[in-house]
Every structure is written in structure tokens, then in C-alpha cells.
Amino acid sequence: MLKEMARQVVESGQADLHVRKALQTIDELEPKLNCLLRNDKEFVERQVAELQARLECGESELPLAGVPIILKDNICVLGQTTTCASKMLGNFVPPYDATVWTKLRQAGAVMVGKANMDEFAMGSSTENSAFGVTRNPWDTDRVPGGSSGGSAAAVSAGYVPISLGSDTGGSIRQPAAFCGITGLKPTYGRVSRYGLVAFASSLDQIGPFGRSAVDAARLLACIAGYDSMDATSSEEAVEGELFDLDRVEALKGARLAVPRVVAKLLPDDMKEAFQVTLDEFRKMGAQVEEVDLPYMEESLSAYYVIAPAEASSNLARYDGVRYGRRPEGDFENISHLTTRTRSEMFGKEVKRRIMLGTYTLSAGYYDAYYNRAQKVRTALRNAYVETLKNFTAILTPTTPAPAFKVGEKVDDPVAMYLSDIFTVSANLTGLPALSIPSGFLQGLPLGVQLLGKPFSETTLLTLARDYQQATNHHQQTPELAVRG
Amino acid sequence: MKKSSSISLEETRHVANLSKLEYTEVELAELTGEMSRILETVSKLDNVPVEGLEATLAVGAYANRFREDEPGPCLEREMALQNAPDARDGCFEITRIISKIED
Fold first, then answer.
1. Residue A366 CA to chain centroid, in angstroms?
2. Hey, which residues 24-83 in chain B have their CB within 8 Å of chain A?
3. Across-strand partners of A433?
4. pTM of this prediction?
5. Is A147 a catalytic residue?
6. CATH of domain A2-257+390-483
7. Mean pLDDT (whole number) for A422-429
8. Chain B residues with beta carbon closer than 8 angstroms to that of A297
9. ipTM for the complex?
10. Who is most buried in A114, A133, A170, A348, counting CB within 10 A?
11. Under a CB-based contact definition with an 8 Å cutoff, are residues A138 and A14 in contact?
12. Cβ atoms of B32 and B12 closer than 8 Å
């Protein structure tokens, strides 16, 4: 779809061909869904004018020419308020562009909005936003998942064909599953994090959402690659095939590993749905085998030690001095100013994670929690690498259940954390993983996850593309988007 | 220190102080319960044998990369200050940190 959209724009020479439709859909559906934190029409017009000029100069190397896109609101865009859905950054205007946005603009994309999210990307439902919850387009009583809930819901509802999210423990894949779209967390280092507001730096990656694996691949191709501004970005070459996955041949002889523990972690209806997916893969000619993959339950424990620890350190920068909102009033001293600022401007979950991270990093507990979790991470990576020696990918459901109701888990952090059980391993191990729509349970979309070897995005996306050629789950659209 | 999977109210208060966060007594008590439940859940870490394993701090064998030590473009002062809650004379302004010595 993206390739065709960009071709239409280049051939017609009309920069706003698709942008108008996107703006119209946003106006119609946004009151029901609240996917966006900002939709700056003046900025859209400026981008359209700039693209129009480039088209008139005969520029044709524009893989995303005139394609409307939405960015999660933790990705910096020069001059465009970037809040991370936090009161703390409610008026923060970035003084520079994130590398991914520089690349997208170069590719001809037009940003039509910044997406709602859980505050500082901490959450699995988008309910932790300081600016209201986003609704799931399939059932507006339910959450879209999180933390990139706005980005996922916007694609699902047809605002835009593609969007960007960030994934620290499943924040792209889980909302992709809940909203019935395709989402990918790239290999750690595949995409530059420059200009992504940091949550847990050793786990964070920016990645694409799309209606299909082919579109997600093209978007990934546009944002991936080494960046001197991110010391952890990889010099590994970006495969050109990603731009045009339609032309890549079907993957033959795929071997998929299904961890035995999955069955134990699923309720019966989810187990049955997953069996159907396994049969679909078998019909495509893939070999599906059960394996013993240890430490899946423990991975969640490691994650909920490491991520808050890194967060508590990263969020120490919000001291009320250089940026961020400062409460009104007089302060006794600098410490009082910082404490008041943080206490009033951070939301409940962000504070809870800062507390948890500060505790596990504090003297006396460091070895028992943080250091041990980092060793478990090593054990986990060894187990995954060993399994992937014999398999193309590890296949699991993306989530243990479909989208839950708004308010259902908001007061129970432990229950909320459990929805990340299948996704956190990819972040801890640094491995790439994607979620693709795999059908429905009681009218709600389900997703399955393919997790692969380092830098095997092309293989994973090709396998996903093959699955999407054999099935039509990814083509289903929520009624709300069809009706308009 | 061996971890215990529960945390006391006093410990929570101490951690809040380290985190530069203030809570009411009611909030502190609630948070103490929540943190205890979370710490109990993460105690599954003890199920994994880790003897002889190195800690993975970050994935990927990337050594720190240094750029050439040459001046390049950087953020203009005005841009760097644009998000400051308070700024004066090209500086970030904070509350007084040195008090007058009273005679």
C-alpha cells in the first residue's frame, strides 16, 4: 500500500493527495478515540508546501512521498511540543529533531500528529497518560494497549497507514496485537534512539506500525541504520529488500519453535486460538516444533527490576531546572524545588517505577536485585540464542489475553505487568520481534509474535508477509473505521 | 544483604527521600504494600541458576565510541534555555542556594 501511495503522489505531483483524507478521518474519529495529543495543522501545511516544492524540482527518490504518518509523543520533532504524555513535559518544545524524523522527512513522509501514550512509555494500556485514555477502535470500552496505544489505535482506525512507536518491554507489539495491526521491535541498535526521550536505555527501541508486514518493512527501511548521534546504534547494513518486500520470494523451510511453557500461561480459549495459528503456519509449509525454552516467567521479574532501575536513573534529569514544568510558589532551597516539581508533575505509575528502581539500586539491595536480574538476562539470552541456532523464529502469542477494559487493571500494577509476559524477552535479549494479527476472540483482535536472530528483520517480516498472503486477519477493519 | 520480599514503611520513606518524591502518610502506606507485592513477584529471579554468569548491562558488544575531539555545531544558548522554567541573563535561574550571613 505504501509503495502505491508514494507512487501516486510522485506521479500526480500532488503532495497532499493522501494527507487531506488523513486529516478528515482524524477530525471525524478523534472525539471517539483520543489517539492524538497534537494535530498541528499549520505544521502539516508547512510540510506539504516543502514536499510540493521537492516534487516540483523533480525529486523522485521519495519512498514515503506524501504518506501521512503519526509519531509517538516521546519522539522529538523540532519546534513541536513533545510531552511524553506527562505534565512534566507539558510545554516542552524540542530544540532538535530525532534522527528517525529527520530520515522520514527526507523520505517524503508528512507528520499529521503526535500520538498519546502511557506517561514516559511506562504502562500497558495508555491509561497512564496525563491527557486522557485512548480508546480501542474495535471496542471503545477497551484499552488499545500500551505504551504506544495512540500510535497503534491511529493505524487501526485508518487515520494513517503507518506510525512510529517505541518498545521497551512490548510497547509496540502489545498494542499492535490489541488493535489488530502489525508492529515490530527491531534488534537493539537497528534504529537510532537519538531524540527518543529515554525510559530504559538498554531496552528502548523505536519501531514501525503498519497494516501489513510489507508496509512495516518499508517504514523500517526508512528509519534504520547507523547514526553517529547514538553510540549504541549498529553499523550493520540495512537490507534493501525491506523497501520492497513484495518482490522478495516466499521463505522456504521455515522452522518455528513454540515454547512448551506457553500452554501453561494461556487460558483455554487463547490456547485454542493459538493452535489454529499453528495450523495456519503448518499449512504454509512451516515446520512447527515444541521446545523447552526456560525462564519465560522469570524474564518478567528481570524486566521489572531492570526497567525501573534504568528509569529511576534516566528520570533523575527532571529536576525542575533546565526543562519541565515547575509548580507555582516559593521554595526553601534547591532540593525542595526539585522534590516539589517531581512530586507534582510525575504521574502515579512513573513515581512508582522511580521508587522501585531507586530501591533495587540502593546500597545493600543492588546485588540481590539489579545485579542478579542482569545475570538472569545473560541466562535468558544464552537460552534464546541456543534455541535460534536451530530455528528461524520463536513463535508465541503476543499477549496472554485480548484487550482488557478501561479501568480493569489500572489499580493492580502486578496484573498489568503480567500482560507483558511474552514480550519482555525480546528487549532483555536485544532480539527483533514482531506482532501480526492472527484472528479474533469474541470480536477482539489477537496477535502472535515472531522473535528471531539479531538483525533478522527481513526474515521475520518475510515470514509475516507470507502469513498475510495465506490469511486475511490483517485486512479486517474495525466497524468504526468503515462507518467513519 | 539478602533480599526479603517485603519493605517497611520506613524504608519506603527513605527511598522516597532518595528519589526526591514526597508522599502523604496514606500514600506511603499504600505504596509500601504495592512495592512489597511487586518485590514478591520479582523474587522469581531466585529460580534461575546464575553461578558463573556475567551480568549483561546492554546487549551488543558495542564499545564506547569517541568522536574526533574537534569543535562542531552545538545548541545555541537561546535554544538551550527555551524550555527552562526560569532563566535570566543567559543562565538557568534557580532558587537561592547561598544564604546571607546574618550578624
1. 30
2. 31, 34-35, 37-39, 41-50, 53-60, 62, 64-65, 67, 75, 79-80, 82-83
3. A185, A451
4. 0.96
5. yes
6. 3.90.1300.10
7. 98
8. 44
9. 0.92
10. A170
11. no
12. yes
